[in-house]
Amino acid sequence: MSTSWIVIGVIVLLVLFAFGAYNRLVALGQRVSQAFADIDVQLKQRHDLIPNLVEIVKGYAAHERGTLDDVIKARNSAISAQGPAQVSAAENQLSGALGRLIALSEAYPDLKANANFQQLASELSDLENKIAASRRFFNNAVQEYNTGIQQMPAALFAGMFGFTRKDFFDLGASRTEVEAAPSVKF
């Protein structure tokens, strides 16, 4: 009789542990989703700012059509991207194109002196800082989640519960280009 109570006690403890592990992994997964949503909000603000910036530059540097088209194409690609990996790649392209667009202001002193351009460039710089902070928060949340599903003994239950590894919001091969762009100077 006492052996059966011990077995029942061990089973109850395992079930309670499994519930605890499941709830912890769900919370970590929700944190990753929330962090990605925060990035998405910042990126949408960035996407909304770009057409205004392009229009101002177009007025001063109309013959720089290739750069302007690259920015619009990269913006459209970034808007339609889904999931951290696609969004990261598309945003890297957009950052490079924006860097080239901002660099045009150096060649056009009138553009550089334009108050609207200065305001939009300042907003863009501020958004870039917010995006970088959101990316760091997201990558930290992903690291905690991935660690949580790989640590013992939760790793025994994670696969059963459908928890899989998440991807980081990585800058990839263009890391140096993205870190340098956009450089806003007045």
TrEMBL record:
Signal peptide segment: none
Keywords assigned by UniProt, alphabetized: Membrane, Transmembrane, Transmembrane helix
Transmembrane segments: none
Top-level taxon: Bacteria
Protein name: LemA family protein
GO CC aspect terms: membrane
Main location: membrane
Subcellular location: Membrane
InterPro entries: LemA-like_dom_sf (IPR023353), MamQ_LemA (IPR007156)
Pfam families attached to this UniProt entry: LemA (PF04011)
Membrane-related topology note: Single-pass membrane protein
Organism: Bradyrhizobium uaiense
